[in-house]
Amino acid sequence: MAWKETQEMDQRIEFAMRAVSAGSFSELCREYGISRKTGYKWRERFVAKGMEGMEEESRRPQSHSAELGEEVVCRIVRFKAAHSHWGARKIRELYRRKYGAELPSESSFKRVLERAGLTKKRRRQSQEQSGRLEAEVEVSAPNDLWTVDFKGWWRGGEGRRVEPLTVRDAKSRFLLELYMVENAKTETVGARFEKLFESHGLPGAIRSDNGTPFACSHSLLGITRLSAWWLALGIDLVRGRPGCPQDNGGHERMHLDVYRELEKGRGISEQAAFDMWREEFNTERPHEALGMATPAEVYCPSERTYRGTPEWIDYGGMETRRVPTNGMIGYRGD
Questions:
Q1: Band of the pLDDT at 227, cuts 50, 70, 90?
Q2: I want to staple 202 with a disulfide (CB 3.0 to 4.6 A). Which of 53, 90, 102, 304 is the partner?
Q3: Would residue 326 count as lying in a domain?
Q4: From residue 4, how far is each of 9, 27, 34, 57 by CA, in Å?
């Protein structure tokens, strides 16, 4: 606004009185060196409040977290204490679900948690833009794509090596599996996937990294016994680039939660604790990418029912040969 500082109040009044009956409002605003938005504001205040409306109003917020009742503040702090790694937005969603009406603003939640010393402002680090692998699968519904990986191992309370197998639905963020497998052998991982297929049906595709037992650098197209089984079930394979965990970024972000809430400082090694955490992740924790819904509210089982491994696969008119353990096949006498 370009009012002259010495006569600001008088100019506002003069402008407002002329604005009520001005022929060209735009020209009047240009004459006083102000924008049309500012001009409309002062004209409306003059019409509504007269001379009193020409005073500059305080920009102080009409309400803030310091004015929240003690009971409301205590509720917010209790929610945060129960979910120490959740941010203000998720805490606010839990508050809304339980108490409903008279919901404080998100900024009020942030201020309460900051003043209570329960959160710290994050320092955003600039990162160089790196190439990302474009998804080969269009994810528009649950079970279009599952992602799988092993969470980095840690030592449990009794010195036991813990390396959970994690499987997640890309669309709903539903955590299908968080299980302490004994090892990463094909038989072990395959048994867990068979249970998943029986419970949830078959996905359209599975995204994995290039590690064992999902892929092998020495085989044709990186196919392993496990991934060949997936192909036989009609499941497409999607792999990230070697050394690029960002290609499976959503899954890695979930692993960060596992690290913070299960591994760090506690070294949890009980499957029962994993099951409880997975239940909370799926049914209680709101997700911003889902419009603050929980994964369980979005996920539904696949319509493709698992009926076991097919005994014979139709390759669409191609000749078939059974390959023995020595890797050789016979073709027209050779």
A1: very high
A2: 304
A3: no
A4: 9, 18, 11, 18
Greater pLDDT, 2 or 151: 151
Specify the number of domains making up the chain.
3
Phi, psi of 177 (to 5 degrees): -145, 135
191 and 79 in a common domain = no
For residues 51-63, average pLDDT: 66
Burial 272-291 (b: 16+ CB within 10 A, else e): eebeebbeebbeebbbeebe
Domain match, 221 and 172 both: yes
Pairing of strands 154-155, 161-162: antiparallel
Q: Which of 61-70, 79-88, 108-117, 134-143 has the lowest mean pLDDT?
A: 61-70
SS3 128: coil
Residues 44 and 109 in one domain: no
Cα 329–chain centre separation: 48
Tokens for 86, please give them: 């959740």
In a domain, residue 331? The reply is no
Residue 140 lies in a domain: no
Q: DSSP character for 291? A: T
Q: What one-letter code names the amino acid at 178? A: L
Token reading at 124: 């955003």
Overall average pLDDT of the 108-136 stretch: 63
What the block records as the tokens of 154 is: 């840690």
Does residue 254 contact residue 260 with C-beta atoms inside 8 Å?
no
**Does residue 292 share a domain with residue 152?**
yes
Query: Do 150 and 279 fall into the same domain?
Result: yes
Residues linked to residue 76 through DSSP beta bridges, in sequence order: none
Cα separation, 14 vs 116, whole angstroms? 50
For residue 170, give the CATH number of its domain.
Answer: 3.30.420.10
**Rounded to the nearest 5 degrees, what angle is found at the Cα of 72, between the Cα atoms of 283 and 82?**
40
Nearest C-alpha neighbor of 68 from the set 26, 19, 107, 13: 107
- Residue 89 domain boundaries: 65-115
